[in-house]
Amino acid sequence: MAIAGAALVIVLLAIGPLTWSDLYIQNVLILIMLLAIMASTWNVMGGFTGYISLGHSAFLGVGAYTTAVLVVQLGMPWWAGIAASAVTSALLAGCFALATRRARGHAYIIVTFAALELLKVLAMNLTAITNGNHGLVMPFLRVDPEYQLWPYYFGTLALLVLTVALVIVIRRSKFGAGLLSIREDEDKAASVGIPTSRYKLIALVLSGVPVGLAGGIYAYYIGFVEPRGMFLIAVSMQIVLAVLLGGRGTIVGPLLGAAIVEPLSQLTNSLVGGADGGAWKLVIFGAILLAVILLLPRGIIPTIGGLLGRLRQRTDDALTGRRFDDEETLPIGEALRRLATSDHGRTHDRSPDILVVAGLSKRYGGVTALDGCSFAVPRGSITALIGPNGSGKTTAFNVIDGSQRADDGTVRLNGERIDGLSRWEHAYRGVGRTFQSTRLFPALTVRENLVAPLREFRWSRLASPAMSGVERERAEAAIALVGLTRYLDVRAGDLSYGQQKLVELAQVLVLDPDLVLLDEPASGINPALIDRMTEIILALRDAGKTVLIVEHNMPFVLGCADVVHVLAAGRLIASGSPDDIRSNPVVLDAYLGDSEPVTGGAK
Question: What is the mean pLDDT of residues 332-360?
Answer without folding.
Answer: 76
